[in-house]
Amino acid sequence: MREATDLGDRADPEEARTQQDLLSRTALGVFRLNGQFLAVSEELAKPAGLTAAWWQVLGAVLREPLPVAGIARNMGITRQSVQRIADLLVAKGLAEYAPNPAHRRAKLLRPTEEGRSAVDRIGPGHAALAARLTAELGDAAFAETVRALERLATALDALESAGPSATPSAAAPAPAPAPAPAPE
Fold first, then answer.
1. Do the beta carbons of residue 90 and residue 96 sit within 8 Å?
2. What residue spans of 46-176 are helical by DSSP H?
3. Adjacency order of strands within the sheet including 66-67
4. Which of 171, 177, 174 is nearest to 16 (CA)?
5. Are the beta carbons of 62 and 111 closer than 8 angstroms?
6. Predicted TM-score of the model (pTM)
7. Which residues contact 65 (CB under 8 A, 6 or more apart)?
8. In the chain, how long is the greatest CA-to-CA distance?
9. b/e for 29-50, b at 16 or more Cβ within 10 A?
């Protein structure tokens, strides 16, 4: 497949339709996966007294404390959503706010021992699911799936940081449909 190197370098209509189909199939697949992962995560988190969202936010700060905005950026969700969950985690004693030496107002979120313990209780179910997925996909295919998703996220980040003028739809109109046949 030909790569567009310039915003004015438009793919032929058939190639454009193929590219659009690939984008649509990818998006629909990711949306489906998101729903599946959320459902599985809820089941894994429930015995630990967590929700999938609580687990996601706690998991984001297990290695190092982060400000709410940093968690939101890493997770690709709104700062307000993370703030609401962080406040709930703090109220439940699963996390705490700590001073941020880099920013006086943006406190760091870090798990408490109770929060770490809750996440640890998810470990056996998480390990079992990882083993089942590996058995279903195979080691190499599972690793390639991860790499492909990481490449896709990186590519979308690059397009987003390039701004709206870098998207083909902003650079040129879509190819016009073929004219109707002349009447006989």
1. yes
2. 52-60, 68-75, 79-91, 113-137, 139-162, 168-171
3. 66-67, 108-111, 95-98
4. 174
5. yes
6. 0.76
7. 98, 108, 109, 110
8. 81
9. eeeeeeeeeeeebeebbeebeb
Q: Which residue has the tokens 């590519």?
A: 155
Q: In this predicted structure, what is the pLDDT of residue 164? A: 73
Exposure string for 12-26, b = 16+ CB within 10 A, e = fewer? eeeeeeeeeeeeeee
Q: Across the 184 residues of the chain, what is the mean pLDDT of every consecutive 10-residue run?
A: 51 92 96 96 96 96 96 93 97 97 91 98 97 98 97 93 66 44 42
DSSP reduced 3-state for 42? helix
Write the single-letter amino acid at 150: E
Residue showing tokens 């004015």: 8
Tracing tokens 């988190």 back to the chain, one arrives at 45
Instruction: Look up residue 89 and give its two tokens.
Output: 């985690």
